[in-house]
From TrEMBL:
Domain of life (superkingdom): Archaea
Gene3D superfamilies: HIT-like (3.30.428.10)
Gene Ontology molecular function: catalytic activity
Protein name in the entry: HIT domain-containing protein
The species this protein was found in: Methanobacterium formicicum (strain DSM 3637 / PP1)
Database matches in InterPro entries: HIT-like, HIT-like_sf
SUPFAM superfamilies to which the protein is assigned, alphabetical: HIT-like (SSF54197)
Domain HIT: 9-116
Amino acid sequence: MISTNSTCEYCQIAGGYGKLLWETNHWNVYLAPSQRYLGTCVVALKRHCRDLSQVNNEEWIDFAQIVEKLEKSLTQTFQPTLYNWSCFKNSVFRDKNPNPEIHWHFIPRYHEPVHFEGISFPDPDFGYIPIPKKREIPVEVMEQLAIKIKDNIIKG
């Protein structure tokens, strides 16, 4: 279950993570609303889970398959130079009643700018930790991006 009492700092959406692309038995995969790094997604555990040590073996196996499919999909779509995966829960502890939940940020990184639907996506911090600055793109472009990533996930 996804909490509705906090806002994910990276995604900027209260109680959610963006556009649902795909789901497995244990995880939901969302296209993040901020596309500063083209193809950024959030992978959220479907059940409330405070710490990584509470993720069970079945969920880890499922997550490993998601990692493989997402990385393969983005490689086919945009050929990123590398992928960053992060699991931060810092911002939730700014609230009086923190309710952390496990979710991963999947952040493709690009040495050179990539172009999609007539928009350039440079990676200004390449080689450094991604900076969580919001970059919205037009709804139509988000839709096309979601279709492209989903199609490659399905093709496997």
